[in-house]
Amino acid sequence: MAQGNQSEKKFPIWEMLTAVATILGVLSSIFFYYDAKQSTENKIVEALSERYESVDREMSYEQALEAVDRDIQTLTNDNASLQLEKDKLENEVDSLEEKIKSLEEEIDRSEKIALAESYAASGNYEVAIPVLNSISEKTDDIVALLKDYTSNYEISTVTNAELLASNWNFDEAITLIDEALKIVPNSQVLLDKKRDITPKYLVDTIECYKAENLWLLDSKEYLKMSGKSYRHAIYTQQSDIVGSMFNNAYSANAFYNLDGRYSQLSGTIGSIDFSGSGTIGKQDGGQVYDAEITIWGDEQEITTINLSSDDAAKDFNVPISGVKILEFRVKCGGNSKVGIAEIQIR
């Protein structure tokens, strides 16, 4: 039994050899690692020396890395300095561009002012005003010029419009003002003048303050004269006193206070057809008689229109400048009815 135990404690030769081989392998791996590491570091140093002037081939790996770090830091600082220099140059360029732009605008402004002044000198404010308005930044001088040109343009336009209106060319006068309003859209002077020239219907604008046997046509109705329909009218109507009047004739009148604010009166006068609309002449029959229609202004006769029984409706257009009290007087006979329609004042 004792011998058997001693034989069990002995190491077989092959196990010893295996252990020794293992140890040698580990040592070999360690030596190989350090050798490979050294070789790799040497190669890195060589590569760095070719890339950076501050790295020498004889340097250690750590020294080479320190040299590279210094170079990188220097480059970083240089880049920062260059960036600052670049920003400075860009700011100078921007400032220069601003100055150039300002100079160009000043030159452009001066040229436009000179151009506007040349047009204004010839009275061509239709061009002078838009030229000044095209300047984006207006100085006090430009604003003053615009105000002066606008005032002159308004005066010129109003004068020409009034001249046209005085010759009964009202449509042309309104067109002239409309064109001027394209140049100075907010001109109250032109807007007021256009309102004055634009025709208004007398019966819709001014209330009749006294009338006898002349009636206002309801806005929902119309009357017919010579086969044509008319609105905005006053008309005569038979009264109970007709039969008692001499020669079966009667008169009618109507008064309007114009207060001297209008210059022209126009409309159409005629005998109302017996086939008229609404209650105006629809159920009437019989003979149409002659009629006389007189327009008066402040007790002065302006015009008289005579209608024979077979006359067609007649247009009238008369001046009423300064007239305060406007009067229509109608004389007709029998059961005739006379209409004064589409009465416009300007």
Average pLDDT level: 81
Helix/strand class: alpha+beta
Main sheet, how many strands, which sense, barrel? 6 strands, antiparallel
Terminal CA distance: 153 Å
Total count of helical runs of at least 4 residues: 8
Tell me the β content.
15-25%
**Spatial shape:** elongated
Oligomer: single chain
Radius of gyration: 54 Å
Q: Outline the low-pLDDT stretches.
A: 1-8, 239-247, 275-279
Q: In total, how many beta strands?
A: 13
Order of secondary-structure elements: HHHHHHHEHEEEEEEEEEEEE
Proportion of residues in helical segments: 40-55%
Structure description:
It is a single chain. With 346 residues, this protein is α+β, with helices and mostly antiparallel strands. It has 8 helices and 13 strands. It has helices at residues 2-9, 13-51, 61-121, 125-133, 140-166, 170-183, 188-197, 202-205; strands at 200-201, 210-212, 214-216, 223-225, 228-230, 234-236, 249-257, 264-271, 291-297, 300-307, 314-319, 325-333, 338-345. Strands 1, 3, 6, 8, 11 and 13 form a 6-stranded antiparallel sheet that branches. A 5-stranded antiparallel sheet has the order 2-7-12-9-10, with no helix packed on it. Strand 9 (291-297) and strand 10 form a beta hairpin.
